[in-house]
Structure formats: C-alpha cells, structure tokens
Known about the structure:
Layout: E1 4-7, E2 10-13, H1 14-33, H2 41-66, H3 68-73, H4 88-106, H5 110-135, E3 149-151, E4 154-156, H6 159-174, E5 181-182, E6 187-189, H7 193-210, E7 218-219, E8 223-224, H8 225-244, E9 245-246
Antiparallel strand pairs: 1-2, 3-4, 5-6, 6-9, 7-8
Helix pairs in contact: 1-2, 1-5, 2-4, 5-6, 5-7, 6-7, 7-8
GO molecular function, one term: phosphatidylglycerol-prolipoprotein diacylglyceryl transferase activity
InterPro entries: Lgt
Protein name: Prolipoprotein diacylglyceryl transferase
Amino acid sequence: MLPTLQLGPLSIQTPGLILLAALWIGVSQAGRHAPKFGLSSVMIDNITLVGLLVGIVGGRASYVLQNLPAFTRAPLNIIALNPELFDVWGGLLAAALAVLIYTQRKGLGWAETFDALMPAAAVVMVGLGLSHLAAGSAYGRPTDLPWGLNLWGVPRHPTQVYETLLALGVGILIWPREAGKLGVFGWGVRPGGVFWGFLALSALARIVLETFLAEQTLWLGWLPAGQVIAWGILAVGVFAVGRRLVFVDEPLSEPTGVTNG
C-alpha cells in the first residue's frame, strides 16, 4: 500500500496519480484507434474532456447522496480532493449521458463514438484497480489462501489485484484490432458491439469481484447492490451484443442517419 508519495515537501496522493496516468494512456490509445470507428483523435480528446468533467461532478454527487448524513455533518468534505469519495457507477452514468448529448449535438453516431472510447475505458478500469491497491481500499474478506494480503493483522483476499487482473482481461478481450471486429474473438460486429461487449464483460468481472469484497452495499439488508446492478447490465449487454453480431454475408454496418465529422 502506498497512499501517498512524498517528494520532498510535496505529498502526492498515489491513487489519484495512478488514475490520471491511466486516463492519459487510455485517451492516447483511444485516439490512436479512433480512425477504425470513423473518428479523429481530436474528437476523442474533446469528447473525453466533456465526459471527464461531468463524470467527476456526477460521481461525487452520487456518492454524497448515498452518504448524505456524513456530509451533512461535514459539508466541506463535498469538495475534498479525495478520489475515494466517488461513486464509479454514478460517475460513469453521468459521463455517458454527457457524451451522448455531445455526440448528438455534433452529429456523430453514438454507437461508433462509444466504441471508440472503449480503449480509454479499459485502461482506466485497470488504473482503478491499481489505485485501490495503492490506497488499501476495496479490500477483501479474510482468507486462509496462501496469496492472502495481510491487512490489519488479518490475511485477506487481494481483491485489488483481482480487480486489476479482471479489468486487464476485459481490456484484452475487447481491444479493437480492426474495424468491425470484436477484440480477440474476431467476431464481426455492427456499431455499438464493442461498447456493449465491454459493459457485459465488465459486469461479469464485477459479479466475480463482489464475491470476495469485505464491504458491500446491501439492499433490504441482505441483497448485494453491486451484484444486482451488474447482473442487470450483464443481461442487457449480452442481449445487445447478440443483436450486433454479424454472420456470413451480412453487412458490418447499418444506416444510422447521422454522419461522422
């Protein structure tokens, strides 16, 4: 665990630094692959900026609403520079809505745009796991397995490592190698297939990860909220990918009524 990096008198929060590095690498990779989806690297930069700003505000707002009593007692914590005070799902939803509105105003195809952003999302998810490892957050349940990570004198599942490896696996599986193909599978997909494939695989990874987490948000006192949401996303994602698979002699694209520019 390395929550802070001390450089002389300067103290840097390592989790935030890792996330910034992951975002920079991810956006660079998305820009590199953007032409496969009919976009330019400049478009990716602009879209990412919009999504990032709205996502940060949305993620913090969602976290505050879920923990309102704590912030009522200490309202200044709402603007605290702490990346742990962030709801990932709320941030992603806010960012997705912002990107969707932006693409519509610019006359871009939403499916192609979200497909083009998936390399950035994949790298950021890997960075999220590493940031949790650095911060010591999102820790696992006690375990007797030999690879248990000792926290507070108790061997625990290294869920941060699991999270990083699962995110890395998802990224490898959906990474765009050529236009109209879904990652290493080489399956032909229509626009939107890469996006929905990423969501489905990420939801599956979350279901696995939630099994080992020590702390979970429970609905009705017993229902793991993370798994319920992930199962819903997985079902929708699998259905959407299935509709976008292209078989022999089928066209790889479908009219969208918009132009990429």
